Amino acid sequence: MTCGENIKRMREEHSLSQSEVAEKIGVAASAVCGWERGNKRPTLENLCCLADLFLCSTDELLGRKVI
């Protein structure tokens, strides 16, 4: 899965709207939409905020598998 797909999946698993995620991490809702669509990529700081919000690792959000 792509980073955007993972963000969307986790957002939905936590029953949050794009606007709610945006408010919680301090970005515009359009940023979250862009990440999910793959038009934009979150900054490292935003990626860390998302990982904290979703209680997961940044690797999981990025779709990395540790071997």
Descriptive account of the structure:
There is one protein chain. The chain is mainly α. The chain has a single domain, classed as 434 Repressor (Amino-terminal Domain). It is 66% helix and 0% strand. The chain is built from five helices and no strands. α1 crosses α3 and α2 (18-25) packs across α3 (29-37). The longest helix is centred in the first third of the chain and has 11 residues, at 3-13. The mean pLDDT is 96.
The value of Rg in angstroms is 11 Å
Q: Percent of residues in beta strands?
A: under 5%
Report the CATH C-level class.
Answer: Mainly Alpha
Domain count: the total is 1
CATH structural architecture? Orthogonal Bundle
CATH homologous superfamily classification: lambda repressor-like DNA-binding domains
| Structural class by SSE content | mainly alpha
Helices and strands, in order, run as HHHHH
The average pLDDT score comes to: 96
CATH third-tier fold name: 434 Repressor (Amino-terminal Domain)
Number of strands: 0
Number of DSSP helical runs: 5
Q: What's the helical proportion of residues?
A: 55-70%
Coarse shape: globular
**Distance between the first and last residues' Cα:** 17 Å
Q: What's the structural blueprint in terms of helices and strands?
A:
Elements (H helix, E strand, L loop, with lengths): L2 H11 L4 H8 L3 H9 L6 H11 L3 H5 L5
Key phrases:
67 residues; mainly alpha; 434 Repressor (Amino-terminal Domain); 5 helices; 66% helix
